[in-house]
Amino acid sequence: MFNTGNTGFMLVATSLVMLMTPGLAFFYGGLVSRKNVLTIMLQSFVSMGWTTILWVTVGFTMCFGGDVAGIIGNGKYLFLHGITTQTAFASSANIPMLIFVAYQMMFAIITPALITGAFADRVKFRAYMIFLTVWLLFVYFPLVHMVWGGGIFQQWGVRDFAGGIVVHASAGFAALASVFFVGRRNVKNAKPHSIPLVALGTALLWFGWYGFNAGSELRVDAVTANAFLNTDVAASFAAITWLILSRIFEKKPKMLGMLTGAVAGLATITPAAGYVNVQTAMLIGIVASLVGYAAITYKNKKGWDDALDVWGVHGVGGYTGVLLLGLFATKSVDPAGANGLAFGNSMFFVKEFVAVTIAAIYAFLFTYVALWLINKITTVRVCEKAEEEGLDKSELEEEAYV
To answer: Residue 216: which CATH number?
Structure first.
């Protein structure tokens, strides 16, 4: 009944995307100080458990269960009701619906975890759990439906191959809002405590991103191969570009800069991976580091305490990637995609611009308001004493290194 090749591939792709969340935990864990390692890692790992519960109960049906006003799904698949081992995903991929449920669940797990890097060292765990819940319900799930689940953006012809709008722009601009609400850290000059951990996290993210992007084709074909190669090419060009930028502006080639550049390239190619050719992927990688480096420089100049540069890497990267998709998408790569502005379709660029801008603004505004409301229920930010002694001790009573 099912295509065993496509099914096997999607099982592997799903596993790769799952690996990205522990990779993110290591990436963020290395970037914070020794006394906050476990807290930032827990914020990623807890999403693996809690988001899964939300996804299989209400999340999947909110994203892919029918349609209500183009904004959200209905209760068709509540608690995955009606999905059996024999239910097929309705596409030419000919894979079990259960594989699609699991694959999309891994995206839901990592997206809110991305935001945590912005407010590292400052937020209470209880407040984070409330935020994780409401952000998924009111931002992530509706955006998935609107872009991928038959909602208004998809009906309009918007394309987002693997999550430039849904994942990176939404998380990145939500991160910026959290920075503005939570405020600056009291502990000055907090530096990464373990760049080797950051390197390990980058490697896991890079590896998992092949499942993130190539797997988004949901089957094995030429577009899958193109997305796979584009993922590596963009990351590589971005990593080397950032290395050059650090040599020019900081007078030394920086390991941390190269790792940051690689992630920026991966985030920026994500919406376009299956819709552009490899030459465009090279350009996207270069542009990813140029805009990411500029965004972080601007952030530092303004004094915004985005601790782990979530806005500059993921927010600006995802937003830029969607615009570049609007410019350079071509049906010669994917006949099911669209032609961009460079190929004579100006309206496609307009649609991409409008969709990603709406998503970014909504994610920003909702996040700020949500944190304001949560703060009325339970204090969002830890006290100054807790921040000074570290959240691992004050919040968890655990130590990463003994």
So the answer is: 1.10.3430.10
How far apart CA 76 and CA 140 sit, in angstroms, is 19
Residues 134-172: pLDDT tens digits?
999 999 999 999 999 999 999 999 999 999 999 999 999
Q: What is the DSSP letter of 398?
A: -
* Long-range interactions of 15-18: CB distance < 8 A, separation 24+: 15/211, 16/207, 16/208, 16/209, 16/210, 16/211, 16/212, 16/215, 17/103, 17/106, 17/107, 17/110, 17/208, 17/211, 17/212, 17/215, 18/48, 18/106, 18/109, 18/208
Total domains in the fold of the chain: 1
* Residue 16 CB neighbour total at 10 angstroms: 22
Whether residue 189 is predicted with pLDDT greater than 70 in this model: the reply is no
Q: Is there a domain that residue 216 lies in?
A: yes
Sole residue written with tokens 């190669």? 229
Question: Helix H segments across 157-221?
Answer: 170-182, 195-214
**CA atoms of 219 and 225, how far apart (whole Å):** 10
pLDDT at 92: 74
In angstroms, rounded to a whole number, what is the distance separating the alpha carbons of residues 394 and 124? 10
Domain enclosing residue 113, as ranges: 4-382
Extract the tokens encoding 307. 């601790």
Mean pLDDT on 369-380: 98
232 pLDDT band, cuts 50/70/90, is very high
Residue with tokens 């003994």, as numbered in its chain: 402
Q: Are 380 and 189 in contact (CB under 8 A)?
A: no
Give every CB contact of residue 98 below 8 A, 6+ residues apart in sequence.
83, 85, 87
Among 322, 298, 320, 296, which residue's Cα sits nearest to residue 310?
296
By the 8 A CB rule, do 162 and 271 touch?
yes
**231 CB burial (10 A radius; 0-12, 13-18, 19+):** buried
Whether residue 394 lies inside any domain: the answer is no
HSE of 120 in the Cβ direction (CA atoms, 13 Å)? Answer: 31
